[in-house]
Design a protein that fits this description.
- 15% of the residues lie in helices and 34% in strands.
- It has eight helices and 54 strands.
- Strands 3, 4, 9, 14, 15, 16, 19 and 20 form an eight-stranded antiparallel beta sheet that branches.
- α1 runs antiparallel to α7.
- The two termini are 31 Å apart.
């Protein structure tokens, strides 16, 4: 075998290795997509709960203990609450049908006190918590299942041993207000309205991790049980995705993502991009970048066939793909020449249909038409594209239902909203908190504001407010950011002025009938601006525990976030630090155990708190308690000297004498022996798989090139020269004999 043959063989082998690697990777990827199986532990998050090892045909199941033990199951992903889909089969022109959150589950045992499902969401109207928590609690009464929503009286919803379907809906005429009816169907019984989930700010529950300023867990499952008791429950489906285990005891992801839109789409404008607030949500997987398509009415797609232009009918082909539409690039701007000649002359606007194709990483896909979610043109059923130069659009202003155009008061609406304003100023029968850091949260105005060009959630708002002794002040924000600081007790007045997406604010009406822009200087003088009032009273200081990590380490400075104190100015605080010493024979197993004992007044049964003295500069660093470096007058921090439980307390004296005892709050910290660094799970390879594959292929190709260059096949002249030289040497050897 000569060198040329070896070189060619090496190249062939190298090339074969490259192709084998590529094919193996692609085939592996194709097989993964074809099977679309995902681990049963990858959808829900559990803490202190047991994932039941079911068999093929069973459903995803968890076993949880009493909530006091910290046992729970969560769904930590964005959760769709409202969207649209085809009424039946996918056809162009389908009107679409509204879809709502739905979940089916089953309780495997009923010997528990209660089983609770909590839904956390953003808000339609702002509150101190920054999120809304709605709850439904299930209890068993004999053989029947009862459900209570947000603490209301429980209603019987059916048998306790059947499949339970929990779903949301909206009442006719009340769509988009943030309130959803909670419907429960158990076993063979008909669905029962168990109550209402209120103050939901979006059409989906937006997940926010525990590290966010306001963590949001869309779904949380907990239970109350007897000592050592538990509840086993199966999650059978969520928004159409089944959780039945396949032959590999995994979940088959066979449900396409859904399109949730949070904008109230009323029109698009020439010369602007097609933009609105949306999110693609998949129950199990991640979603690829959506594909977008459009079709302008009167401008059909054509293709050349046998030299003639033929119209491509808008339809879904045999493969389920949309044809007869054009691709909608993200950089696309629409202009008048994109529409049929005379479209804007005849109607004042053009119309178009827009479609989105969503696909998840397991190749489940679906189409969604944006006109399902939008205010439609009655003639075409599609979305209007308007000319922003049209004066009727340029001058469009938001309107409020409290007054008519001529300034006549709508007394019914005014009184209705005033009742909501008064209610928002009260909590548990008393005035809301007053003082530094306290706020009054303005109730949602969505039922009372309209605009021809955009929806309520796309507007911004200016709140004008004043007290009897102050000038008019303002705050500005989105619909879920409206609040007024209430630093002092007394009577407050406010009004709200909306501004639409085009930047046009509601117009004011003067006493003489003239119109004017609304400002701080004239807001109290206008005929069409509704003013609402509330009164707040100071009831004493209020303290909230800081949201600091409850774990600390020996010899590592532990810093406590400031306690949130709401009180009138001039209050005084006193901080103290303690170390817990347990009684002989008593074992403290958790921080929660101490918290409950402290709150119930039974801490003496477990041990006692020993106070750590404040830092004394007159003593040495190691004398008395100076090694703790506890000096709350300068900073809320200390250096733990031994492991165990510590407590920081704060007592507030507001100097007002409103309460018999001074309010006190505490925080307990668990100090461990040393700081353990636990490496987190890495998803680098998963997230960069394509890069790794192509890098590997590139390396193999480079090896092939190197082999080719190093073991280079020689040309014919070189081979002839080597042959002649060998003959010459052979002849010389023979002559030596």
């Amino acid at each position: 075998m000569n060198k040329q043959k070896v070189s060619i063989l090496a190249l062939v082998i190298a090339f074969a290795l490259c192709m084998a690697a590529m094919c193996a990777t692609l085939m592996g990827s194709m097989n993964a997509n074809a099977e679309a199986s995902i681990s049963k532990s990858s959808v829900f998050y559990s803490e202190g709960a047991e994932l039941v090892d079911g068999e093929s045909g069973d459903y995803l199941s968890y076993k949880i203990s009493d909530a006091d033990t910290g046992s729970l199951v969560k769904y930590n992903k964005n959760l769709a609450l409202k969207w649209y889909a085809f009424t039946d089969e996918a056809t162009v022109g389908d009107a679409g049908a509204v879809q709502y959150f739905s979940m089916t589950f089953a309780l495997q045992n009923t010997d528990f006190e209660s089983f609770k499902i909590a839904m956390e969401t953003t808000q339609m109207s702002m509150s101190k918590d920054g999120k809304t928590v709605n709850e439904i609690v299930f209890t068993v009464d004999g053989s029947n299942l009862k459900a209570s929503v947000n603490g209301a009286e429980a209603v019987t919803v059916g048998a306790a041993d059947g499949d339970i379907t929990l779903s949301l809906s909206e009442e006719a005429g009340l769509e988009g207000l943030g309130d959803f009816a909670v419907n429960v169907k158990s076993g063979d019984a008909s669905a029962v309205k168990a109550g209402t989930f209120t103050n939901i700010g979006m059409n989906y529950a937006k997940y926010a991790s525990s590290s966010a300023d306001t963590p949001i867990a869309p779904l949380t499952f907990t239970a109350e049980t007897a000592a050592e008791g538990s509840v086993t429950f199966s999650i059978k489906s969520l928004n159409g995705q089944s959780f039945r285990l396949n032959d590999n005891k995994e979940i088959t992801d066979d449900t396409a993502p859904v399109l949730v839109i949070d904008s109230e789409i009323k029109q698009f404008r020439l010369g602007e991009k097609v933009e609105f607030d949306y999110i693609a949500i998949d129950v199990c997987s991640t979603v690829k970048t959506p594909e977008r398509f459009y079709l302008v009415d009167g401008m059909p797609v054509t293709e050349e066939t046998d030299g003639a232009e033929e119209t491509v009918e808008a339809a879904f082909d045999d493969a389920g793909e949309l044809v007869g539409y054009r691709e909608l690039d993200t950089s696309k701007y629409f202009f008048e020449d994109d529409f049929a000649e005379g479209a804007f002359t005849e109607t004042g606007y053009g119309t178009l249909s827009i479609a989105y194709k969503l696909e998840d990483n397991n190749s489940n896909s679906a189409y969604y038409f944006i006109e399902w979610y939008a205010q439609k043109d009655t003639a075409t059923g599609h979305i209007k594209m308007v000319d922003p130069r049209d004066a009727s659009l340029t001058n469009a202003r938001p309107e409020m239902a409290f007054y008519t155009e001529d300034g006549t008061e709508n007394t019914e609406k005014v009184e209705e909203y005033q009742a909501k304003v008064t209610e928002a100023s009260m909590k548990d029968g008393k005035s809301i908190q007053v003082g530094s850091g306290a706020y009054y949260y303005i109730p949602s105005l969505k039922p009372y504001i309209t605009d021809a060009t955009c929806g309520y959630t796309d507007m911004t708002f200016t709140v004008y407010y004043w007290t009897g002794s102050s000038s008019v002040q303002t705050v500005t924000g989105d619909y879920d950011e409206l609040r007024i600081p209430v630093n002092t007790e007394g009577d407050y007045a406010f009004c709200v002025v909306p501004t639409n997406k085009s930047g046009n604010a509601m117009v004011g009406l003067k006493e003489n009938g003239g119109k004017t822009e609304i400002s701080s200087s004239n807001v109290m003088e206008l005929k069409n601006v509704a003013v609402f009032t509330f009164r707040v009273e100071y009831n004493g200081a209020y303290i909230e525990e800081p949201e600091t990590d409850e774990i600390g380490y020996v010899d590592v400075t532990y810093t406590i976030d400031d306690f949130e104190i709401i009180a009138l100015s001039g209050y005084k605080t006193e901080y103290a630090l303690y170390r817990f010493v347990a009684k002989q024979g008593v074992s403290i197993t958790s921080l929660d155990q101490l918290k409950k004992a402290e709150e119930s007044g039974t801490i003496a049964d477990l041990g006692e708190w020993i106070e750590i003295k404040k830092y004394d500069s007159s003593l040495g660093e190691d004398e008395e308690d100076n090694m703790y470096e506890w000096n709350p007058t300068s900073t809320l921090s200390f250096v733990p000297q031994e492991k165990g439980f510590y407590k920081v307390t704060v007592t507030v004296d507001d100097q007002q004498g409103k309460t018999e005892t001074l309010p006190t709050a505490f925080k307990i910290i668990n100090i461990t022996a040393e700081a353990d660094v636990i490496p987190g799970a890495t998803y680098w390879l998963q997230n960069n798989i394509l890069s790794v594959v192509f890098l590997g292929i590139g390396v193999l190709c480079l090896i092939a090139i190197v082999i080719l260059l190093v073991v280079k096949p020689k040309d014919k002249a070189v081979l002839e020269a080597e042959k002649a030289r060998k003959e010459e040497l052979k002849e010389k050897r023979e002559n030596r004999k």
